[in-house]
Amino acid sequence: MIEDVRIPNIVRMCDLNFDKSLFINFDTHTVLDRLLCSYNGLPKGVNYMIIGDPGSGKTTIVLDMLANIMNYYPNARILFVSAEMNEIDLAIYVQRYPKFKYIDILFIESSFSGNDCSHNLTEIEATLDLGWDIVAIDSFYELQGIIKDEENLRMKEAENRMLAMIKRNNKAQNQRGLNTTFLTIQQVTKSGNFIGSNRLKHSITAMMELRFDNPRNVFSDRYVVFSKHRRGDVGVRLYYDLSTTGDVRFDEERYEKDARIRRMQTEVANSLRKYADRFDELFNNSENIDNQ
């Protein structure tokens, strides 16, 4: 009989126990929930990265998600970390979307003085250690650069520090034992490609992209689509409108229409495969008869 010796750091999923509440998602109560996860809503303890064309509304979409979740989960602890915009910049957003003013915000400002000894990384780590359900960061790249300069690190080392901080809180290693979900806005190149290392790309649960139908025309229709998703579908478009005041308006009617078309395409494709398999079966049987 072979002895069952447990090897350090090797685990079996059957030996792990999770609180059932970990798999109860936060709903935004919009059609966006269907894209966020296959079983609807924003999951806990995950990392979603948001990229998109300039002017596509990345910050607005994220703040709208946070405000909607806060409205239906008043006890949820939600934080927005702003490393790109200051209080005056965000005041403009609040004028158009008054519900944003109730979100807790941590403003991170880079020091422009070489003699100033800043401690933004220490402050961020201490703040996250208080325990949050959802933390949004705008943007990952900007915050990475600030940490790099203040801590005298290379960009890769600054990224490692940030990823380690995120991973700790994903796993509820904070004062409240909350599995923190991170929504990190990331900058893109002029051609619209993701900025960041392969390690950063592989560490995220999902990549949400905000795009224009015509990237050269900021007045063309905008849509949300996931290009990577461990919890849901990729390639499904959800169109939205930022012209209204108060809320982001998602085009649910268009989404439902596209969903019906996708279902029909799937049904037709399945039928064609069945006919092809039946044809192959009949063809192979006829060959066997002829050979006899």
Structure commentary:
This protein has a 9-stranded mixed β-sheet with strand order 3-2-4-5-1-6-7-8-9, sandwiched between helices. The longest helix has 40 residues, at 252-291. It is globular and about 85 Å long. It has 292 residues and is α/β, with parallel strands linked by helices. Helix content is 38%, strand content 16%. The protein is built from 8 helices and 9 strands.
Which helices and strands, and how do they pair?
Layout: H1 33-36, E1 47-52, H2 58-72, E2 78-82, H3 87-96, E3 104-107, H4 120-128, E4 134-138, H5 140-151, H6 155-170, E5 181-185, H7 198-203, E6 206-212, E7 222-229, E8 238-241, E9 249-250, H8 252-291
Parallel strand pairs: 1-5, 1-6, 2-3, 2-4, 4-5
Antiparallel strand pairs: 6-7, 7-8, 8-9
What are its keywords?
292 residues; alpha/beta; 8 helices; 9 strands; 16% strand
What is the straight-line distance between the termini? 52 Å
What is the makeup of the main sheet?
9 strands, mixed
- Oligomerization status of the protein chains: single chain
Low-confidence stretches: none
Helicity level, as a percent range? Answer: 25-40%
Number of strands: 9
Q: What share of residues are in beta strands?
A: 15-25%
Shape: globular
In spatial order, strands of the major sheet run 3-2-4-5-1-6-7-8-9
Mean of residue pLDDT values: 88
> What does the radius of gyration come to?
23 Å
- What is the SS-derived class? alpha/beta
Number of helices: 8
H-E string: HEHEHEHEHHEHEEEEH
